[in-house]
Amino acid sequence: MSGWYVFGVADAGLAVELEGLRLVRAGQLAAVVAPVDPDEFTEEQLNDRPWLEEKVLAHEDVLSRYLREGPVVPLRFGAIYRQLDEVVELLGERRDELTEDLERVRGRVELGVKGWVDRGRLEETLARKRAMSPTSAPGRAYLERRQAERDVAAEASALLADVARSVHARLAELAVAAVANRPQPPELTGRAEQMFLNTAYLVPAADEALRREVGTLDEQHRELGLSFETTGPWPPYNFVGREEP
């Protein structure tokens, strides 16, 4: 049985049909769709990481292609409708929300910023700064060393939380809007470093101020084993309506 996969919504007057895709127009809005077999999106397939990554990348690629044409409101991965009439109904029911979203992101892009820490290096640096006093009695050295390790770990966690808050506030001043998301675990990032910051910012498309600031922050925190990177531009998932189709 066939269906229609909806990637996102664009301006009806500006959007153009790209190869393998189709536009479903309703008033001033156009949904970007492609034919799909709904039965392909089974629970088993959704739990197949290589398959899922391939499909998500294809979803992102379509949205990025339309992002080059003009503003686009992305729908979450997996929005499938049985009939084109249902897509038209979607555009009608959510017309006001989608129109407002398009205006919000017009001329703007989403940039992601991630903060990483080499936890071992950070704790070593903190431990050196608060080295134990050499006057401790031999019988207390082991207990004091263990306590010092716990204190350093707690200090590192507190420092990361403070840096995350201050960096996000600093970058938010350069953006139209800002969102702080939950840091991703290593099994998703595939990196040895711990992610302690995962934020997104809506900025004017040609504005490089945020990227430059992230570069400055990266240089300022390298000594502690912290690093920062900018990703994107991305479809503005974090800055459009949260209502699911």
Structure notes:
With 245 residues, the chain is an alpha+beta fold. The protein folds into two domains: 3-106, no CATH class; 110-239, no CATH class. Helices cover 44% and strands 25% of the residues. It has helices at 43-46, 49-67, 84-93, 95-105, 119-129, 138-172, 186-189, 209-221; strands at 3-11, 22-26, 29-36, 72-74, 80-81, 108-117, 177-180, 194-204, 226-234. Strands 1, 2, 3, 4 and 5 form a five-stranded antiparallel beta sheet that branches. Strands 7-8-6-9 form a four-stranded antiparallel beta sheet. α5 packs across α6. The longest helix is centred in the middle third of the chain and has 35 residues, at 138-172. The two termini are 20 Å apart.
Give the overall average pLDDT. Answer: 86
What form results from the Cα inertia axes? Answer: elongated
Largest sheet: 5 strands, antiparallel
Instruction: Report the C-alpha radius of gyration, rounded.
Output: 24 Å
Question: Regions with pLDDT < 50 over 5+ consecutive residues?
Answer: 135-148
The arrangement of helices and strands along the chain is EEEHHEEHHEHHEHEHE
Helix/strand/pairing class, anyone?
A: alpha+beta
Beta-strand residue fraction: 15-25%
Number of structural domains: 2
Tally the helices: what do you get?
8
Q: Give the number of DSSP strands.
A: 9
Helix content: 40-55%
**Cα-to-Cα separation, first versus last residue:** 20 Å
